[in-house]
């Protein structure tokens, strides 16, 4: 079971316990009713019998509590244990009704309360079976009373009570079906909404990706680079520096002119791969535009920056391109500088650009640092 499945199971288990606690409030009412019935002299059994209602209630409910708390309920087909809980309650209720004499008709309504717990949860057939059990229980009480004469009751009144109980229980089916349909509709809407949200989220991700990635090289674009460099710049603490390098492929126009635009594209893609493979995961290489690229190295001094850019330059200079004729190589020039805390990014980029211009002027295929980078 993975993490999200476990979380879902915990959530359901908490809900089952909540339902169980709610059922306990009904038991509390029943305990009060028993006490009042006993105190007013309407209870027909002995004191020990009166106490047995409490004992049975406590034992059965504590058992259910333990089953839920230990997670034993998860081994059952229906972990909510709706059916066993209802059957136990129906039997306890019938036992109580057997001993309350003429007020039986009033307390009988508790059958409906008990079945209410199942009407939204169980299938219609399961509900009908449990409702039938309630009716059988009550009918048995009538029959037993007629034979044993525990207390005087007219058969007509008893049958009328049974009929009224049957009507109430049937009415619960209508209510249950209505609420269940409503719940299913809500669930359906909820899942549709979730699907829409998911689609929207992935579209947003795609849009974000499109807005920040260069389609040809799959590198971050200029916009992403500026935002990220500015963010990292604000995080710099005193004494720390970021390494900045502006890279331009040499005589790239010639490659396009001599070997075609597609070959040029492939060179750009290969360069992106070479640069990426020579950097650490946290460093950034972005396409700045055309055949110009930019690097940002975290926590970097001038020597490290120079070394890193040189590694890329040499990697490119020796790389055989499948799109170019045998022996044709591509070179690059780079201008580098450092970014200090609270520096203006544009100003540092223009310094790297000046250094790049110098590298081009000095004959290309080299890395030049801006003079201020030595300061
Ligand atoms: N194939 C291809 N070419 C591009 C792309 N973007 C820009 N270019 C080409 O890159 C070339 C850049 O040429 P220039 O700016 O003259 O520079 P260069 O030829 O590299 O010369 P130096 O930079 O001075 O070494 C132009 O011909 C652009 O059309 C692209 O996405 N694909």
Automatic annotation (TrEMBL):
SUPFAM superfamilies (alphabetical): Nucleotide cyclase
Transcription as UniProt keyword: no
GO biological process, one term: cell adhesion involved in single-species biofilm formation
Compartments (UniProt record): Cell inner membrane
Keywords annotated in UniProt: Membrane, Nucleotidyltransferase, Transferase, Transmembrane, Transmembrane helix
Enzyme class at the top of the EC tree: transferase
Reactions performed catalytically: 2 GTP = 3',3'-c-di-GMP + 2 diphosphate
EC number: 2.7.7.65
Membrane spanning stretches: 20-39, 51-68, 80-97, 103-120, 127-148, 160-179
Domain GGDEF: 240-372
Cofactor annotation: Mg(2+)
Stretches of the chain forming a coiled coil according to its record: none
Stored SMART domains: GGDEF
Domain of life: Bacteria
Gene Ontology terms: cellular component: plasma membrane
Keyword match Secreted: no
GO molecular function, one term: diguanylate cyclase activity
NCBIfam families: GGDEF
Name of the protein: diguanylate cyclase
Species whose genome carries this gene: Halopseudomonas formosensis
